[in-house]
Task: inverse folding
């Protein structure tokens, strides 16, 4: 268990030991006490992070695109000058056009193409409730969906057994629909894994719409990689498996892609390789609970995006909402890197447990390796009880820039390794655990960091017995306790102040060589305040007050406001900061560490 933090009238050095993160109730990714909670249930308005929602939105985007003339993935860099038009008429098809090296066989509305020809464009239109399009070949080809609706009750609607590129062009202004059946009539030597399946690459372009119903397994599936370009507008509803699945990669350069998944452990976007989002808007709604995976001998849960390798978000918008037990928003077996764009994640349900032993816990953004944030606007809300952490890395975590807002039942931000913050704006609010928790060292060198934990024994900042170092930035922490910043390495003055009975909405002001103010987000019977800012100087005065007025208010972020001056109020701390780390009325227990200062 975490040790208790308790209030004292003088600063006192206390030795303590923290439990391993793997022990029951441990304070790392593998556990975490969830005692405490808001002491009065009263909080101030925390803004959009507590109320935003995610829903399917097919509104098109105004996007621009630069085409690399040397990139073969762009249809513009290819010539498909020979066309075969296939029109579906419910129980029959008409085929127009002939190309040397191409044969087209029909059985009712089931079409099979065998091709050895280059530069062929297959244009599909019309409607059938019992048909399909299958192609065998060894050359890349264009597939134009020109207002087509195909349902295949016994297999894939579109099945490319060609291992070369398939350029899927959604004709401008058209609406296209593909659906499969719940059972497939498969052959031993062929894959047929979803409604639109390809052995090779699937490259989507055009300004049309595509709606995919997946009833057997996957919606859109490639045994290679999938590319979405600006202009496409795609919706996938998967009831038996994941909506989008690729072996090597999923690349989203633009467009609008909406997916909904209801099956146990289904993913909105699943890749055995890597996922990269550069533009567009991807929205995933997953509702399935977790399940036991007999192949992996472990539990598996749903996720908006899941990759076995790196997930990189450079731009665009990624929205993920998971309401099933154990569900996750964004999850990688390796690294997650966010460099820009907008990312919003919601998880709402409890952990999934199998056989009273194996668990899958709901997470917002999770990396089994390192997690790096270099930019972007990130908003995460996880409310499903124990283990529902906002942003978690099992390796190192680094935040260099961006706006990060997290509201979580369990730890808002959790790193199993070292956590370094060099810039950006961070708001980490936990309703039942720590604001920011790391099992390694914690270093803040810049940016604005607000960390709100709940009551004892939880913390605003918790890095067990590891060093907590502050060298820059504006830092405010509130909780039942805290890890004490280390006097070895900390080069910007820090004040750690204990107190009791502070109400939600109370304005705390800190003045020194300048001033700042912070609105307490919830009531505490007992609290620990950590504050560090460039307004504090070693050897200078620091006055912390409640109920004061501020003048010259500047930037505002989740209750934290810069100011030029403070007037009035009741002082709760007033001293000259002779050390870089000063404690008053507080002694750290378990989870505390580092050096100590006195006033």
Result:
């Amino acid at each position: 268990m975490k040790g208790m933090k308790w209030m004292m009238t003088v600063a006192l050095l206390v030795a303590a030991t923290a439990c391993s993160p793997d022990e029951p109730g441990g304070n790392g990714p593998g556990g975490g006490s969830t005692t405490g909670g808001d002491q009065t249930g009263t909080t101030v308005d925390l803004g959009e992070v507590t109320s935003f929602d995610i829903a399917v939105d097919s509104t098109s985007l105004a996007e621009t695109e630069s085409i690399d003339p040397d990139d073969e993935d762009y249809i513009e860099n290819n010539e498909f000058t020979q066309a075969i038009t296939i029109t579906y008429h419910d129980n029959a098809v008409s085929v127009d056009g002939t190309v040397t090296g191409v044969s087209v066989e029909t059985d009712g509305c089931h079409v099979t193409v065998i091709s050895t020809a280059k530069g062929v464009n297959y244009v599909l239109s019309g409607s059938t409730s019992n048909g399909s399009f299958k192609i065998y070949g060894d050359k890349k080809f264009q597939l134009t969906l020109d207002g087509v609706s195909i349902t295949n009750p016994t297999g894939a609607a579109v099945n490319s057994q060609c291992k070369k590129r398939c350029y899927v062009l959604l004709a401008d202004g058209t609406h296209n629909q593909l659906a499969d059946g719940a059972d497939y009539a498969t052959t031993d030597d062929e894959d047929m894994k979803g409604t639109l399946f390809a052995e090779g690459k699937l490259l989507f372009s055009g300004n049309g719409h595509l709606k995919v119903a997946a009833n057997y397994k996957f919606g859109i599936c490639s045994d290679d990689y999938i590319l979405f370009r600006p202009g496409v507008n795609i919706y996938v509803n998967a009831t038996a498996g994941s909506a989008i699945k690729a072996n090597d990669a999923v690349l989203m350069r633009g467009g609008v892609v909406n997916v909904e998944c209801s099956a146990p452990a289904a993913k909105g976007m699943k890749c055995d390789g890597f996922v990269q989002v550069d533009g567009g808007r991807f929205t995933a709604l997953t509702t399935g609970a977790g399940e036991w995976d007999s192949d992996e001998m472990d539990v598996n849960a749903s996720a908006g995006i899941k990759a076995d390798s790196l997930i990189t978000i450079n731009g665009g918008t990624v929205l993920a909402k998971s309401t099933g037990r154990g569900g996750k928003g964004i999850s990688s077996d390796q690294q997650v890197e966010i460099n820009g764009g907008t990312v919003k994640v919601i998880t709402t349900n409890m952990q999934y447990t199998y056989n009273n032993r194996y668990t899958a816990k709901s997470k917002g953004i999770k990396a089994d390796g390192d997690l790096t944030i270099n930019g972007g606007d990130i908003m995460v809300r996880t409310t499903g009880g124990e283990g529902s952490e906002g942003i978690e890395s099992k390796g190192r975590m680094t935040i260099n820039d961006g706006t990060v807002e997290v509201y979580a039942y369990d730890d808002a931000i959790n790193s199993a390794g070292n956590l370094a913050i060099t810039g950006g704006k961070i708001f980490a609010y936990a309703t039942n655990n720590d604001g920011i928790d790391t099992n390694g060292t914690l270093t803040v060198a810049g940016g604005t960091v607000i960390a709100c934990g709940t009551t004892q024994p939880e913390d605003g900042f918790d890095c067990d017995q590891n060093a907590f170092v502050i060298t820059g930035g504006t830092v405010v922490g509130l909780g039942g306790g805290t890890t004490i910043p280390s006097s070895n390495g900390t080069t910007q003055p820090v004040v750690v102040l204990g107190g009791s009975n502070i109400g939600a909405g109370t304005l705390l002001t800190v003045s020194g060589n300048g001033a700042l103010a912070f609105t307490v987000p919830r009531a505490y019977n007992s609290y620990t305040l950590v504050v560090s800012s460039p307004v504090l100087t070693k050897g200078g005065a620091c006055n912390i007050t409640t109920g004061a007025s501020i003048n010259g208010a500047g930037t505002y972020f989740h209750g934290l406001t810069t100011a030029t001056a403070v007037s009035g109020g009741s002082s709760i701390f007033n001293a000259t900061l002779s050390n870089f780390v000063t404690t008053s009325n507080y002694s750290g227990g378990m989870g505390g560490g580092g050096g100590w200062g006195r006033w």
User: Anything to note?
Assistant: The chain has a mean pLDDT of 90. The CA atoms of residues 381 and 407 lie 5 Å apart. The radius of gyration is 28 Å. DSSP finds no helices and 60 strands in the chain.
